[in-house]
Amino acid sequence: MTDNQTVQAYTDAWTQSIEAISELVTPLPEGSWNRATECPGWSVRDVVSHVIAVESELLGDPRPIHSLPRDLRHVTTEATRYLELPVDKRRCHTALEMTSELEYTIIRRSRALRNAKQMPNEPVRWPAGPQSRDIPYHELLRLRAFDVWVHEQDLRRALGAPGNLDSPAAQVARDVLLQGLPKAVAHRAGAPAGSTLVVDVTGPVEFLRTVRVDSAGRGSVDESISLAPDVQLTLDWETYMRLACGRGRPGSVIVEGDKELAERVLANFSVTP
């Protein structure tokens, strides 16, 4: 694809996922907005608030003036504090207020994306509080498609409404999560030089990848087949996504090979902040 086609593909993936969120939560009764999700400390309302907050910040809206309570145990860093502030601000909002703001935010953000003048590689600000930095415009769109899809899945699991595991944004999520796999294996799990690990993922998004650790301890990932890997992990796509996003436990993973190394890898499998 050309750079412009890539930008459009990421935009389309984001659009499909954020509109799916709107369709999912619009008919919810008030009580369902308080259901817990797998995001620590966050309810359905909080996840939707986070999605609104990030898109609003990308639109240039000012951050709300608000003081966080001091008893939020899941807020442990400056980064989580930054993300929590607009979420906590909306905890008193009704279902109608939430769905109305989400719908309006989608309309505004979609218009902004259609009218955007940025070139694919043009540096733009990634709003992440103390971790804010400039990244290429196409990368911002990729990360937004990824983040919105992951939160769509958070909401679907909380509400018992599975779907879109094979959507365009799911393909984006696969690539984002695989990008972080070599570091998880080589650095955080401490896989020794010369070792190989295969992940065989089944389900709506199927793939097989091999992580190789070179003599300097650096990891890389490719699509080639390793006939005798030190570790092979077989799991379905939803399990892979949940583990890689820090949402699940490795109970439904089939492990072959070095069990100790496999345990270290699974303990360090999350690649999201």
Automatic annotation (TrEMBL):
UniProt GO molecular function: isomerase activity
Stored InterPro entries: DinB/YfiT-like (IPR034660), Maleyloyr_isom (IPR017517), MDMPI_C-term_domain (IPR010872), MDMPI_metal-binding (IPR024344)
SUPFAM superfamilies referenced in this protein's UniProt entry, alphabetically: DinB/YfiT-like putative metalloenzymes
Isomerase among keywords: yes
UniProt domain MDMPI C-terminal: residue ranges: 172-264
UniProt entry tagged with the keyword DNA damage: no
Keyword annotations: Isomerase
Domain Mycothiol-dependent maleylpyruvate isomerase metal-binding residues, every copy: 15-156
Record-linked NCBIfam families: maleylpyruvate isomerase family mycothiol-dependent enzyme
Protein name: Maleylpyruvate isomerase family mycothiol-dependent enzyme
Species this chain originates from: Kitasatospora misakiensis
